[in-house]
Amino acid sequence: MIERGPDVSFANCGLPYQIGGEIPDRAELAIQTPESLRALLNLDVRTLTEAVAINRANKQVRVRSLADGAESVIAYDNLILAPGAGPLRPPLPGIDSPLVHTLQNLHDMDRIKSAAAAVDHVAIIGAGFIGLEMAEQLHAIGKKS
Ligand SMILES: Cc1cc2nc3c(=O)[nH]c(=O)nc-3n(C[C@H](O)[C@H](O)[C@H](O)COP(=O)(O)OP(=O)(O)OC[C@H]3O[C@@H](n4cnc5c(N)ncnc54)[C@H](O)[C@@H]3O)c2cc1C
Q1: Confidence (pTM)
Q2: Nearest to residue 138, comparing CAs of 100, 8, 121, 81?
Q3: What is the DSSP secondary structure assignment for residue 49, as one 8-state letter?
Q4: Which atom of ligand 1 is nearest to the CA of 104?
């Protein structure tokens, strides 16, 4: 398994609730580690490693270590693509402000927690379920709209 992030299998559903304090222990969100997956399923899991090219003829994936930039090649018989999806950042003027956040992983969560500690008012763009969960949890820690 090739994962460019530092974590595997964290509980995305709990991210808003750690921000709001309903899940006080950050460690509860980290369900598995590369070590536990090796022990459980004999998996070779490489975090901080990005897939950068697929050579279909040779059945190889080129990967780059995000720790030191070193590239290497991994051979496969079959390849499964499961790269997920990122939050849409519409091309609005001001979108690149450091005060604008998206929530997808533990590091986004940490950034939002520390940014929220310094402000009283928060606006949320998008009233889908993540927007509503964030509204509920930010309200719980005393933030105003
Ligand atoms: C805040 C939040 C709350 C949510 N709450 C719920 C909920 O309550 N219930 C529910 O059912 N769903 C919930 N979801 C949705 C759920 O988390 C996603 O549907 C699910 O994680 C999608 O799984 P996935 O494996 O397709 O993608 P992801 O979980 O996004 O995993 C894809 C992984 O691929 C990695 N990757 C991408 N490109 C590369 C590359 N080139 N090289 C190496 N690695 C790469 C990414 O770093 C990522 O870790 C929530 C999501 C969020 C963000």
Answers
A1: 0.89
A2: 121
A3: E
A4: 53
Residue 42's H or E segment, with its range, is none
* Interval 11-53: pLDDT, tens: 999 999 999 999 999 999 988 999 999 999 999 999 999 999 9
The residue whose CA is least distant from atom 34 of ligand 1 is 83
| Residues whose CB falls within 8 Å of the CB of residue 45, separated by 6 or more in sequence, listed in order | 1, 3, 8, 34, 37, 38
Residue 51 phi, psi dihedral angles, 5° rounding:
-75, 125
Tokens representing 83? 């790269």
The reply to whether 13 belongs to the active site is yes
Interval between CA 83 and ligand 1 midpoint (Å): 8
Instruction: Please state, in angstroms and rounded to a whole number, the distance separating the CA atoms of residues 122 and 25.
Output: 24
